[in-house]
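Suppose you are handed a protein chain with no further information: no name, no annotation, nothing but its sequence. What can you learn? This example shows the usual starting point.
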Amino acid sequence: MKALLLVGPSLAVLAVVIGYPILRAIWLSFQADRHIDPDTGMFVEGGFAGLQHYLYWLTQRCMLSDGTVGTCAPGTLSTDFWPAVGITLFFAVVTVSLETLLGLAMALVMARDFVGRGMLRAAVLIPWAIPTAVTAKLWQFIFADYGIANALLDPLLDGPIRWTTDPWAARAAVIVADVWKTAPFMALLILAGLQMIPKDVHEAARVDGATTWQRFLHITLPLVKPALMVAVLFRTLDALRMYDLPVIMISSSSNSPTATISQLVVEDMRQGNFNSASALSTLVFLLIFGVAFIMIRFLGADVSGQRGMGRRRKRGVTGMFGRRKATGGTAGGDPGHAGGGGPTDIPAGPPAMVAATAADRASIDGPGGAVDGPEIIRLDEEGKR
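A reasonable first move is to predict its three-dimensional structure. Written in structure tokens, the prediction is:
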């Protein structure tokens, strides 16, 4: 009850600030547009329209002049819907993929100990801190017909690239600008996850002979995966709402090669079609909600697995190189112990085992035999040999 009293005011504010606009937009999406009453000359409510606005966007069905519903005429805003959906998804997939790879590389560098690390971390924030409008104008100058980009590429090409008119060149320019601005955000989120990995885990793996690639693949990547997925989720949801970069850099037209769904919403509102714009906003909301739901379900299952892995790794670095074979030395002995009667698998589990590998094949001589292959040092519950 005390917890509810503490979070109650915040929930009330969120319900008003977030909940009401969403419900209002959904309600408007089922209403017909207001029109002028020929008798009074006043605007009147259009009444309930059902799924008319949704069909307008999804199937390009419009209300014709004779009062029937038919295919929308060419040039109608709804004809740009599916191309805008494809461009939006294309931007989301490409930009998030590039930003994840670049952000992970930047985070791995910033996680190291070196002189000037704090200065580097502060400098990385500059592109992310610059307002998006300023970033868009900056890259618009760079990708101008006689800008820096064409000046650098001119020796390699026959002529200048038309970054604002060529469809794929325009999309590439928007992608470059978005990656430059948002990759630092990904790097900071991933860096926070890297800082949570205990250093003794890496030290144990290094002592055991694991290479840098093995440590990254079996320790760093699995343990940073929850933070990585959160960063991917945030950026994916943000990329699906992309609006300002393509509008400022390329064009605000709904049929431009970089037009996104958000541009169609704004353009429809400018034309005074608030109800159909609300329907399109609801479709965008459902798209973002569906993507978030799928990613959160996947992320939640993965986080639970990582917690178990974290508990196992706290007891020791085990199972990195699979199961080990132990060979016995005397007949009739207990299998699985030094001096036993035959080979057996030593499973990874309590009591904890630390797997140590060497560059060359080695063995540990016991009272009745030897343990061949990678050495196995078995520890009891008190950490004694």
